[in-house]
Specification:
CATH architecture of the largest domain: 3-Layer(aba) Sandwich
Number of domains: 2
CATH topology of the largest domain: Trna Endonuclease, Chain: A, domain 1
Low-confidence stretches: none
Number of helices: 8
Distance between the termini: 34 Å
Helix content: 25-40%
Order of helices and strands: HHEEEEHEHEEHEHEEHEHEE
Number of strands: 13
Mean pLDDT: 87
Radius of gyration: 20 Å
Shape: elongated
CATH class of the largest domain: Alpha Beta
Length: 257
C-alpha cells in the first residue's frame, strides 16, 4: 500500500466525506509520480502519451514505476515528477489524468479537477504588517491541521531550521495562531507560506486563522516563541544533490512538446 492507496481507500469508504477527498488530493499533490511518455525526454521537453477516453484526453501517471511497467511494459519511457508539477502542466495543456490504472486505487480526473488542484497549489497568501501583543500556547487546533503541517514541514528540507506554533493576541483584540519559521533560507519564505495555506485548505479549514512569520534566531522575540510554542524541527540537507532528470526540480518542471 502506497500513501496514495491509503488515502484512496479512506476516500472510497467515506464517499461523502469532504475531508477524505481533500486528503486524497493532498497526497496526490505530494506524491512522486511517473508519467508515461511517447518517447524519451528531449532535454527538458517531454511528450506524454495521450489517451482519449469518452471524449476526454488523458495522460497516465503511476506512483510506482513497477505499476507503470505492469501497464505499459518494461522499458516504457517515462518522466518522474511531483503531483504538484503535473497538475500545473495539465491545467495549461487542457489534459486530464488517469492515475494508477490497473491498480486498486485507479482514478480518472478530468481537466477541470486538475485545474482546481493547480489553482489551490498556486494560491498566494496575503502579506500584512501586524505584531502580536501576547504570545500564548497553541490550543483548540484540529488534529487534521496539525497532521497536515507536520507532514509538510517534514518534507521542507533546508527551508528553515525550525518552526514554532503559538497562539497570539493583538492590540485590537484579534486572536489567532502563528507558525513562526526560524532562520528561513533566502527566498524560501513564499514557498513556506504557501505550504501552510495548503495545509489549511486540504484539512478543510480554509476559514481557519493561522498567520505565518519569519524570524532570525537572534531576534529576542524567538525566546518568547520557544517558551510557549509547539516546536517543529525541519530536516536539513546532508549535501547538495544534483537533479537533472525531467521533473525532478520543482522550480523547473519539464515542458511539453
Amino acid at each position: 500500500m502506497t500513501p496514495l492507496d491509503t488515502a484512496f481507500a479512506a476516500m472510497s469508504e467515506n464517499p461523502d466525506d469532504t475531508a477524505a477527498r481533500l486528503a486524497w488530493f493532498d497526497r496526490l499533490a505530494a506524491s512522486e509520480l511517473v508519467l508515461l511518455l511517447e518517447d524519451e525526454a528531449d532535454g527538458d521537453r517531454i511528450r506524454p502519451r495521450v489517451f482519449t477516453v469518452e471524449g476526454a484526453d488523458l495522460v497516465l501517471a503511476f506512483d510506482r514505476d513497477e505499476r507503470l511497467a505492469d501497464f505499459a511494459g518494461a522499458g516504457a519511457p517515462y518522466a518522474a515528477m511531483s503531483g504538484r508539477a503535473l497538475a500545473g502542466m495539465l491545467k495549461d495543456a487542457g489534459l486530464g489524468l488517469g492515475i494508477n490504472l490497473g491498480a486498486a486505487s485507479e482514478t480518472v480526473l478530468e481537466n477541470e479537477a486538475m485545474a482546481w488542484l493547480a489553482g489551490v497549489l498556486s494560491a498566494e497568501p496575503a502579506e500584512v504588517e501586524d505584531q502580536p501583543e501576547e504570545v500564548l500556547p497553541p490550543k483548540n487546533l484540529p488534529e487534521a491541521l496539525l497532521t497536515a503541517l507536520d507532514l509538510r514541514l517534514a518534507s521542507a528540507t533546508g527551508r528553515a531550521t525550525m518552526a514554532y506554533l503559538v497562539g497570539t493576541r493583538f492590540s485590537g483584540g484579534r486572536q489567532s495562531h502563528l507558525l513562526a519559521f526560524i532562520d528561513p533560507a533566502p527566498g524560501a519564505e513564499g514557498a513556506l507560506a504557501r505550504m501552510v495555506g495548503e495545509a489549511l485548505t486540504f484539512s478543510g479549514l480554509e476559514a481557519a486563522s493561522l498567520d505565518v512569520g519569519f524570524f532570525r534566531a537572534s531576534d529576542p522575540f524567538c525566546a518568547r516563541l520557544a517558551k510557549v510554542g509547539l516546536r517543529f524541527d525541519l530536516p536539513q540537507p546532508e549535501e547538495p544533490v544534483a537533479m537533472k532528470a525531467p521533473g525532478t526540480d520543482p522550480n523547473q518542471p519539464p515542458r511539453l512538446r
